[in-house]
Amino acid sequence: MRLNDLIRTLFVVKYADGVQYLVERITATANGTGDSCKSFYEARDEGYYAAHVYVLQPCEVPRISWDTETINVSFEVQVTTQLQEVIRRLLHKYYEGSRESQRRDFPWQWDFGRDEFFPTTSDTFCTTLKA
What is the pTM of this model? Predict the structure, then answer.
């Protein structure tokens, strides 16, 4: 059995162009040491965006028989902007809740009982009530 995201870290850069710059530097460093490296940029409709870099390194881990085994471990490095980090901190509780009870067959924008609906529509709703 193999686990994903066993070792993960996050780098926050000030400006959007810093994301690509840092991803390129991490990739060059990993390639320079002979480690396997892949990266991709992720953006979701909900507003999440970050680059993900996976560096594969051989590591010795103990076996149940007390000897060791060398396995390849994937280290995940996420790179995002300061603005995205602020948004993530503010909305993380909604994200966690949605992971527990996601309904993929029905868009959240039409599910009026979900927590995600209220932060995105409360300003519009309040403006409508005032009119």
Answer: 0.63
Question: 41 has which bridge partners?
Answer: 51
For position 99, what pLDDT does the model report? 56
Helices (H) and strands (E) in the chain, counts: 3, 4
Measured between alpha carbons, how far is residue 131 from residues 18, 50, 117, 124, 126 in Å?
A: 43, 39, 21, 11, 9
| Spatial distance between the Cα atoms of 50 and 19, rounded to a whole number of angstroms | 8
Residue 104 Cα distances to 46, 99, 108, 117, angstroms = 14, 11, 9, 15
Distance CA 91, CA 115 (A): 10
In 44-107, where do the E strands start and end? 49-62, 68-81
Where is pLDDT greater, at 68 or 1?
68
